[in-house]
Amino acid sequence: MKNKFYLLIIAIIFSISITSCDNTTNEPSAYTNGVFVTNEGAFGSSNSELSFINSDGSVNNNIYGANNSSAILGDVFQSMTIANGNAYLVVNNSNKVVVVDIDNLQIKASITGLIQPRYIATYGGKGYVSEWHSFGNNGYLKIIDLSTNTIVDSVEVGKQADQIMVVDDNILVANSGDTTLHLVNTITLAKTNIGDVDFPRYVSKTSDGNIWILYTGKPSWEAGGPTDGGLLVLNSTATVIVKNINIGSTSVANPSQLATDGNNLYYEYQGDLHKLDKSATVAPASPFVIAPATYFYGLGYYAAGDVLYIGDAGNFSTSGTVKKLNATTGALLDTYNVGIAPNGFVLN
Amino acid sequence: MKTFFCNCVYLIAFLFVGLISACAQVNTDTIKNIVDSTQLLIEYKISESRAYDFTAGIKTITIPQSLLRNNGSISSLSDALQTIGGIYMRSYGNGMNNAITLRGFGPERTSTLWNGIQLNNAGLGQLDMNLMPGGFFNSVKLIQGSSSTQYGNGAQGGSLLLEYLPDFKNKFNIGLSQEFGSFFSCNTGVQMNYGNKWVQVRTAFIRNSSNNNYAYKDKTAIGFPTKETVNSDFFSYQGMQDLFFRLKKGWQFSFHGWYNYTDRKISPAMGAANNHSEQFDQNLRTMVQLKKSFEKHDLQLQIAYINDQLIYDADAFKDSSSIHSSQIQVQYIYRPNALLSIMAGGNFSINYSEYKFYVDAVTELRGNVFVLANINITNFITARKTFRREFSWSVKFSTGIRQQFSSHYISYPSTHAGFDVIRKIARNQNFYTSIAFNTAYRMPTLNDLYWVPGGNSNLIPEYSWNSELSLKYDWKNIDEAKTMKITVEALGYFGRTSNWIQWTPTSFGYWAPQNITNVQSAGFESSIGLNLKKKKWIFNFKTTYNFTHTTDVNNEFKQLTYIPEHSVKGSIELLWNKIYLNIFPSFISKRYTLSDNTLSIPPFLLLNMQAGYNLQLKPCNIGLYVRLNNVTNVDYQMILNRPMPGINFQAGINFYLNK
Fold first, then answer.
1. What's the confidence (pLDDT) of residue B379?
2. pTM of the model
3. B48 pLDDT higher than 70
4. What is the DSSP string of B234-267?
5. How far is B187 from chain A, CA to nearest CA, in Å?
6. Lowest pLDDT segment from B5-9, B315-319, B551-555
7. Nearest Cβ partner of B595 from A47, A253, A317?
């Protein structure tokens, strides 16, 4: 009996020592005061996952599975949006949006019937999901009734509809497979093309209300490519083009990613991180941080601490890392091990 | 240990003396004295033709006919290979793409040859073993080790040799096979051989189909509910035609044709959307072969044309590729005496493809020339016979060099040097020692060079060196009432590959191949076999254990993905009169799915069984069988989130008519 008691004590001490030595755990916890990381996973492998970087620097990986009986999230976890006490997880190649409770990440519903969904925005009790649909054909903006989590309407937009933004009563849709930027009215569902730039993909808003769109330009393997990428700036109602800043292209590189601290824009070009003042009219000649990642795959800015998070996908067959940088100096502050191909960040 | 040391000493002595003796003419009397020992070598490595004779030191396996043709012409080659120790078949699901892995090298680093002509797809560098009908061949050999010197490009892991060898004594026989099984699978095969001592004709045809809608546990939903695979049915037919003409004065002419049409729907990974993918494989392979056998010379000329078409059709993506490959191969063998044989030759090929991802039409010229030599020395120290114990020696030494070149490159030459030493310890005991050292290469594929975007014309060929040592002991007890044979084998190998080509993402948003790393392969293979025969009972048992440590030198020696470190396979065969039972248990350890070895697929223990009854009603044979796969209904995966089927069965009948 005495021996068993000692064994129990040793087992408890051993368990405590293991958990205290490792700052990466799969234990469920309250996911507040930190940053969610969407890990896309490798295409066709269904190994995407959700991570959470706590403000104290600890990381919780595989938190979707940990809170849902080890269930797999799906294939190609593209993006996440928090609204109405829920998190909407857009799983691109599983053709679904998973609705989870933001407090415990437990699944509440699954929105199906989508085809290659990319991003979701919420407005007026409805969800708006951009869909790539199929290559070579137009994408769609699907309208979801968030009370029933069902598709209630659909609007055909441009090819490979990608990032979206709520602009007054409209949804701005960047169509990353052609030259169009659509503004879809949420009441009438009428659409207007407001742009003519090659492959617009990322959208962001600065403190003056202007809307910034990073267009990648055509890559070299597209007919007529490569063409230059750049930043198209619209006014706060997305009705007037304020300016167009050329970034450039080469036979192997086009710009990508976009984040803002309100006054500056951050983007990737040729593997480097670039920083641009919102009042600038030309792109910076030299990078802000040279090659901050092996494979620069995600970018986010957070005012708390004035930091940038960069997702490094490595070679896609290894766990990804997140680099935390000082947004003023560009200095590397920390590195976190997360899931495969971290492509985005959501502050909670 | 002492025995091993003695073997090494004798080995060196034999090498030295053997080289001298090979250079000299050997008198006829000596040759007559060594016939008995030569028989041992022939038993050890059944030498039928060509480069297979020049592989001394390398582990070679002849796939037993019982495995290869257990279900007549519809027998699956991948099923047969799966039972062989050291082979790991990477399958995307039942009936889906199935890739061979040998000693930690994947399908693009394993060379598959049909009658001596390489079949690996010029674009991908690999072959789908699910499209290889095992029942079409009566000779399948596996060179389980680096063998580029003998078999050319890409044989770093090994080579698979597929052949149909004619029997000029045959007059007429026909085999019909019909099989039904789980998931509405239906497999039909017909095979006919007819002719005389001058002409032989062989015609074979198979048709396979299955709904392939098997149950699996859906791990994307809480509680893992059982679901059924979708979009996974397949349909395939293949035909093979062989014509052999034995002409006067030692000439032989043959024609070989092989056509495959396979239509497979590609089931999505667990949790991924069904994008209704469908893949069509069409392969046309034709060959003419001319042989001339002289007293001391053999000459062989082969001309082959291969067309590989692959069409992929999915909701969001459609693709079609076609590669035409023409090959000409010349081989000349010179055997001045029983001790020495020399083989020289060359292979030249033109690969041509018009493919949208190559942008422009691509033509690539490839070629290689080689020289191989064998020295056989047997009963060299005849004085040993004066000792009380009866024993003798046989030594075979092989060496060779092959130089490959293409429109882009001249690779480093591949070389080989190896020994097989057989010591007959007693009338019923043999001890075998094999040592080999060789170098190998792999040229970049058409996709590596020309794919847009990413194709990299600056790639250089991979280059490997490999060494292996194996020891084998067999003992047999023969008396009229009972036969018993025990075989024990152990093998270790070590090697490295530099300039390993790997597709990696670039910072520009697409993937590109690079000579990015170096790979080290080290491993251990062992087996124990027992064969028993008593009256009407036959019992065969074999178990193998393989340790495969194939690691990325530039990545802290992490194990390569999807390579199990440990595998244990067993084969139990029990025959009584006309009834047989085969049991194939196998254990595969975890396989890493990420190159940093942080995630893996769990290990699994699989059990397959087959029982049958063979009825002989001369001149007919009728065989009935039932096969149970995954008897214990294990939930397992070969590729991450690609479920494999649970317990399933096939039942069939084979009918043979022999005249």
1. 63
2. 0.86
3. no
4. EEEEEEEEEEEEE-GGGEEEEEEEEEEEEEEEEP
5. 30
6. B5-9
7. A317
